[in-house]
Here is the input.
Amino acid sequence: MVQPAGRVRRPLGALTRGTTAPNRLRRVDRWTAASYASLLRAAADPLVVDLGYGASPVTTLELAHRLRAVRPDVEVVGVEIDPSRVAAAAPYASPGVSFRLGGFELPLDGRSPVLVRALNVLRQYPEAEALAHWRTLCARLAPGGRLVEGTCDELGRRASWVALGPEGPRTLTLAARLAGLDRPGSLAERLPKALIHRNVGGEPVHDLLTAFDAAWDAAAPYAAYGARQRWARAAATLHERGWPVLDRPARWRLGELTVAWSAVAPREG
Here is the structure.
């Protein structure tokens, strides 16, 4: 079902470009389903929001499909600020999948989502405004809920995202299709808005990417066994050197690395 446009007044936010494509968000969906399976299974109300799904509802439909492998009765609501995009999505609504006109205020009739995915939404905002939208979205989460916010390239081959709880940011994940990746530092251009302008000397995220590149160079001999083994060895090196790497080899071999937010949080001033 689609919520009538007249029921939502002045959605909070600005229109995005709306570009999307099938499977563009497969990496973040895969990570979300694995990382928050227990959260979804335990939820009394398994409500999930896909915020800013764009000109096509395909990524909302894919998110519902992927999360149903974890929680078959999950409900996914696609929220868009453009009425024409909501109207275009209407024919794709089905039991458990709906589309609504709205923005960061999340028009959910008083319900609180256990998960919100917001990919390629905040990149267009100034950093301070993006952080304010973080706070708005986190305040609307169910207890223990999570916001997953980040960005990716047009084909979804390079991405990064921050996972946040009601208390604020918790983790940063870097993810890539490893075939053709020259080095981990190339993911800098896909950092979330809160970090993309912080990739300069003296900032923790710059230190992380520099250390990851050094570990990648040191792992060059593992390239003989494939890019996955080289990435995994570089991730292991970071862990051994004291970086708060939160995932393990099974995730590394998928081209992922997740670290505690405390390791990359921007410096004040």
User: Anything to note?
Assistant: The longest strand covers residues 168-176.
